[in-house]
Design brief:
The protein is an alpha/beta fold. The chain is 52% helix and 10% strand. It folds into two domains: 316 residues, 3-Layer(aba) Sandwich (Rossmann fold), CATH 3.40.50; 271 residues, no CATH class. The chain is built from 26 helices and 14 strands. The protein has a six-stranded mixed beta sheet with strand order 6-7-8-3-9-10, with helices on both faces. The longest helix is centred in the C-terminal third of the chain and has 31 residues. Bound molecules: adenosine-5'-triphosphate. Adenosine-5'-triphosphate (ATP) binds next to strand 2 and helix 3.
Amino acid sequence: MDSCAARSSNVAVGGLSPLSHALWKTIPGGGGGDGGIVPEAMDVSARLAWRDLFVTASNARGEVQVLLHRLSGYAEPGNITAIMGPSGSGKSTLLDTLAGRLAKNTTLTGEIFLNGRKKQLSYGVAAYVTQDDTLIGTLTVRETIAFSANLRLPDRMPASKKRAIVESTIVEMGLQESADTAIGNWHLRGLSGGEKRRVSIALEILTRPRLLFLDEPTSGLDSASAFFVTQTLKNLARDGRTVIASIHQPSSEVFELFDNLCLLSQGKLIYFGNGYGAREFFADAGFPCPELRNPSDHYLRAVNADFDRVQATLRGALKLKDLEYADPLDRVSTSKVIAILVEAFQSSGYAMMMAAKVHEVSQTKGVVLQSTGSHASFFMQAATLTLRSFKNMTRDMGYYWLRLAIYVILNIGIGTLYFRIGTDYGSISARAACMSYVGGFLTFMSIGGFPSFVEDIKVFSRERLNGHYGVAAFIIGNTLSSLPFLLLIALVSGGISYNMVKLHPGVDHFFYFVLNLFASVAAVESLMMTVASLVPNFLMGIITGAGIQGVFLLVAGFFRLPDDLPKFFWKYPMSYIGFHMYSLQGMYENDFRGLEFGNKVPGLPTIPGEFVLEDVYQINMARSKWWNLGIIFLMILAYRLLFFLVIKFAENVRPGLSRVIAKSKANLLLRNNSALQTAIRPVTHSPPPKELKVAPAYTP
Ligand SMILES: Nc1ncnc2c1ncn2[C@@H]1O[C@H](COP(=O)(O)OP(=O)(O)OP(=O)(O)O)[C@@H](O)[C@H]1O
């Protein structure tokens, strides 16, 4: 069978179930109303057209690289448009440009029309499924989708209705059988890659977005899973959605499901149109698809410069001459093939048809699409995130449980090492060492939860970019959910060591010790949260967090007394910035004040605890232990605020001057580079002639 003859068969797979259709009609993002019922007659589809998109990126040295060369195209409701091309051809860049997610070092010129309005999409207007499935591993599929529904559907929607939407989404994505299976993490075997990808898509279609972008939805999947995921996308498109997906190397079955193909190479448009047209276009341009070759493989092989190296190796090994190759692609270099195809497309009827369609779509007025992000209130988001995070912390062994076990072992160790410490002279330094270890090393160990925290941040980043909730809701959720665990750690650890060592007697002293430990561990957690937002790589983050704490520990007052610290840098400001100094001084005061130390030897004086505090450990007596505790709590707030500001700052700051320079350089590049101008002629936007002019075939 000639596999290249395979047509876009548009496999008939039904659209939405009547139930989900009816339910989704009530979702604001899906319909355009404000939570009300969308009128049946209202056309809420998304028509997207783009014209002459020219994207450049500037690097740190100010050099400008052209990423997209004046690309045009369109995407219509009911269709899947596949952006195809070899690695580095600009697929993700085009997808990001259309979705309004370009990196900050890039500049864009050209026009994007959404429903007849010139508009650059902002976050949340369209759903965007990223390549990596960042999901919470401990939750089941149903829980994951249900939490997402609570985060995004309106508060006033009855719970039964939300549940029905969740169930219909599960059915829609073919996840019924795995609905109660956990997603999976390092200690939990969970879903397959294809199922995870479908969960990621399910989360984005909950609010019934009309426009869906997917970055390589089939990457890393075997061909059966890839087919099933694409078929699911086809179902979504059939329901009137506009689906645009970048795709790397589709199988012939997957390729047949695409309605439109946008083929790129080196940021240039090679072909735009339907799959069948691509076959004709390549044949007319002199590069017909050989029999028994998957068409998409052929197109990608034609425009992939890496094949030049493959070819050179084969030439050397087989000692063949150019004319001995049957496939014309093997006789010319890829750069030449790309140049021929670009030229052929620009002067072909396909380009004219595309231009006419771009013109038509850009003129077709439709509704202004609302954000598909969240319609839930801030309180609902914060409450849902708290519950979700709490569930995850309870189930993830590495988040707190493993740490708690280590804390128990360590505190039994401390207890036996300093068992019933007493009040003789020697106990003074032993008490100080014991408290320093508890306050220093035990809190230091809190960085052990960093990997779990980085996973949380990844999920947060994905959901935030898709407009599901804001930074404040995330901080509240993460803080509140962690409190019971931190309190448990402080109570168990403090309970073991305090009672075995027999530090200052009295329940109030014991509770101060526990509170101090709790605040210190919470401060480390908050510090690590800020570190995670700045250094999201978990190994680098752990090293950074450990380094910061190492410095704070050095200046806490145990390894070097406060008055002996070198004034510049170590004392001011470092010892005041770290929370360890306040924690240690609070613990010292809690223990030493009110105790008398002596060796019960007649004639030897007893030493009051106040003397130890002031003259031995140089504690600032003007600041009470409660003030010290209060300062640690303020630091927790400060770290959380810092995290908030880091996220907000990263989001809002646009590189000012460098961006302006990059833009002017890009314009200059576009105006002055005549070679570029001819190679990437803008497509004409006049209506197509009645008879299509097809480019003459290339004769090698
Ligand atoms: N923000 C950026 N700054 C600098 N260069 C960039 C930027 N974004 C993309 N590029 C470069 O543009 C080219 C195209 O990248 P893009 O990610 O769009 O390719 P792709 O076709 O999606 O590749 P892949 O299939 O490997 O993901 C690459 O060379 C990439 O390094």
